[in-house]
């Protein structure tokens, strides 16, 4: 039986783990920003504008 040389796999797990963590954290950051600035902030501004308009109408109605 001939001896075959097998490359050691030391360090591959660490590199793979760091790559996976880097990609997942990067994608998580991108998706969080997409949600925050693409959905949350515009909805919050729309809500604030609605209540501001409502308050201005109420103030005009009572003459304050």
Automatic annotation (TrEMBL):
It is a single-pass membrane protein. Pathway: Energy metabolism; oxidative phosphorylation. InterPro entries: Cyt_c_oxidase_su7a_fun. Keywords: Membrane, Mitochondrion, Mitochondrion inner membrane, Oxidoreductase, Transmembrane, Transmembrane helix. GO terms for cellular component: mitochondrial inner membrane. GO terms for biological process: mitochondrial electron transport, cytochrome c to oxygen. It is found in: Mitochondrion inner membrane. GO terms for molecular function: cytochrome-c oxidase activity; oxidoreductase activity. The chain crosses the membrane at residues 17-37. Belongs to the fungal cytochrome c oxidase subunit 7a family. Component of the cytochrome c oxidase, the last enzyme in the mitochondrial electron transport chain which drives oxidative phosphorylation. This is Cytochrome c oxidase subunit 9, mitochondrial. It comes from Sordaria brevicollis. The lineage of its organism: Eukaryota, Fungi, Dikarya, Ascomycota, Pezizomycotina.
């Amino acid at each position: 039986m001939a001896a075959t040389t097998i490359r050691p796999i030391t360090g591959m797990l660490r590199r793979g783990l760091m790559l996976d963590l880097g990609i997942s954290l990067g994608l998580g950051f991108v998706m969080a920003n997409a949600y925050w600035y693409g959905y949350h902030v515009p909805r919050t501004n729309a809500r604030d504008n609605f209540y501001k308009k409502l308050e201005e109408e109420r103030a005009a109605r009572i003459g304050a």
